[in-house]
Specification:
This protein is of the alpha+beta class. It is 31% helix and 24% strand. The protein has 10 helices and 20 strands. It has a 9-stranded mixed sheet with strand order 2-3-7-8-11-16-17-18-20. Strands 1-9-10-19 form a 4-stranded antiparallel sheet, with no helix packed on it. InterPro entries: ApbE, ApbE-like_sf.
Length: 380
């Protein structure tokens, strides 16, 4: 469902056996064996600094494929009943995918895109809520995040397949079809209406986070207190504690050396999302074009290497990591200073011998553990 990079924030790294499938977990003996034996490492140890960087203990993980990536629930070892609850949470992700994707002809959002220009289209509570949040964030980010950029995404996907760049005329056409002011929501009736027949919604930059939030709410209702959820490794939601830490250690990937981590965040009752263009891109006439578009220009943006956002909800972190990537350092700093519940790590292209020059905003020092050999660090 999303074009977002599937690497960045890196919960949990596998050391040893691969995580068991959902079906394997739900077979009696396999479930018991997995509960006893599953071991995962959520953050790599840095030589000589093991006492400073939080690392993981034994965990149990249940996974499924949804939204073109892997979704997982990671839990502390405990009663077998929590595995069944985790399975139900992952089933919920599939239900939400059917509502939010634009890549299935029978999906709810596809129906909205096809019919909303002709009149109000009723939608269920979940789809209405994610659309309402997306439109609110579009306004707050001055259009750096825009769920009406569906036609821009389609255009660039087609051009990548054809190994060419969009023409100015093509870009002008999709820009004319972009704008959250063309979407009208009726909260009482739970309907969506388009003011322009060209409008096309795409929730790829917020959908994974919204699904993680709903799954986390379900697990909390089922009295599962300590867990980490991730979708495609780029979106993470953490609740409770792990291995004696006041939270869950989550690795942050180096955008230049994707097999390495430059740091770890200790995440508790918060969410985190990473956006970058180091994984998904294409080259044309010697130049690299990333997959993250500025909805205001219909062109890829490349002012930053990577963005990490922490926020109270995964949907918020998901959307803002995309918005900050488009906005750049100064405007992202201003946003975080206004909305103090949001934190960020902004990583511009390196200028000093290949080391990463990062800007950290609003993330407590006691929760952030960096490999200073790779970094030049600033803060706000």
């Amino acid at each position: 469902m999303s074009d977002r990079a599937s690497r960045g924030s890196k919960p949990p790294a596998d050391h040893g056996e691969q995580p068991a499938s959902r079906r394997g977990f739900l077979r009696g003996d396999s479930a018991r064996n997995a509960l006893e034996a599953a071991q995962e490492q959520l953050a790599d140890e840095v030589a000589g600094e093991e006492s400073l960087i939080p690392t993981a203990g034994p965990t149990v993980r249940l996974s499924t494929q949804a939204m073109a990536c892997e979704f997982s629930v990671v839990m502390n070892p405990g009663p077998a009943s929590q595995v069944m609850r985790a399975s139900d949470a992952l089933d919920l992700v599939h239900v939400l995918e059917q509502k939010m994707t634009v890549y299935r002809d029978d999906a709810d959002l596809v129906r909205v895109n096809e019919q909303a220009a002709d009149g109000p289209v009723p939608v269920d509570e979940d789809l209405f809520e994610v659309l309402a949040l997306a439109l609110e964030l579009c306004e707050q980010s001055d259009g750096a995040f825009d769920p009406t950029s569906g036609r821009q995404i389609d255009l660039w996907r087609r051009c990548r397949a054809e190994r060419r760049l969009p023409t100015q005329r093509e870009r002008d056409e999709v820009l004319a079809a972009t704008g959250c002011a063309d979407v009208a929501l009726d909260r009482e009736a739970k309907t969506v209406r388009f003011r322009s027949p060209q409008t096309s919604l795409n929730l790829g930059a917020i959908g994974k986070g919204f699904a993680l939030d709903r799954a986390a709410e379900f697990l909390a209702e089922q009295e599962v207190d300590d867990f980490l959820l991730h979708g495609g490794h780029s979106s993470v939601a953490a609740r409770g504690s792990h291995a004696g830490h006041d939270g869950w250690p989550v690795g942050i990937g180096n955008p230049l050396l994707t097999s390495k981590r430059f740091g770890t965040i200790l995440l508790k009752d918060r969410a985190m999302s990473t956006s970058g263009s180091n994984i998904q891109y294409f080259r044309h006439e010697g130049r690299k074009y990333g997959h993250l578009l500025d909805p205001r220009t219909a062109m890829p943006t490349d002012g930053l290497l990577s963005v990490v956002v922490t926020a109270p909800s995964a949907a918020l972190a998901d959307a803002l990591s995309t918005a900050f990537f488009v906005m750049g350092v100064e405007k992202a700093q201003t946003f975080c200073n206004t909305y103090t519940s949001v934190g960020a790590i902004l990583i511009p292209p390196p200028t000093r011998g290949g080391r990463l020059d990062i800007v950290s905003i609003g993330i407590p020092d006691e929760n952030l553990f960096l490999d200073t050999d790779q970094l030049v660090c600033g803060s706000d």
